[in-house]
TrEMBL record:
<dbReference type="InterPro" id="IPR010353">
    <property type="entry name" value="DmpK"/>
</dbReference>
<dbReference type="GO" id="GO:0004497">
    <property type="term" value="F:monooxygenase activity"/>
</dbReference>
<protein>
    <submittedName>
        <fullName>Phenol 2-monooxygenase P0 subunit</fullName>
    </submittedName>
</protein>
<keyword id="KW-0560">Oxidoreductase</keyword>
<keyword id="KW-0503">Monooxygenase</keyword>
<dbReference type="Pfam" id="PF06099">
    <property type="entry name" value="Phenol_hyd_sub"/>
</dbReference>
Length: 88
């Protein structure tokens, strides 16, 4: 019996980093993913720690998404909520 499921391309040995912003205070806002770039955690690191982090994790650098790229209602990031200041 043949399986109709395709083999997953998830590889936990591959890591990704997407720089979202380099702040004036020297911190780097980034997204870090393991295996699939679409599943990530948001992080903030000092620039020196960011460089070390990328080397230690052998992370592939991804380009930042376009600022005006269309997104659906479910596609939001913590930084979006912080910029809108929920509750104001």
């Amino acid at each position: 019996m043949e399986s109709s499921l395709r083999k997953s391309s998830f590889d936990p040995a591959v890591t990704y980093v997407r720089v979202m912003q380099v702040r004036e205070d020297g911190f780097v806002e980034l997204e870090f993913a393991v295996g699939e770039p679409e599943l990530f955690v948001e992080m903030i690191l000092p620039q020196e720690a960011f460089a070390d982090f990328c080397v230690a994790n052998k992370a592939k650098l991804l380009s930042a998404p376009a600022v005006d790229a269309p997104r659906n209602d479910w596609e939001w990031r913590l930084r979006d909520a912080l910029q809108k200041r929920l509750g104001d």
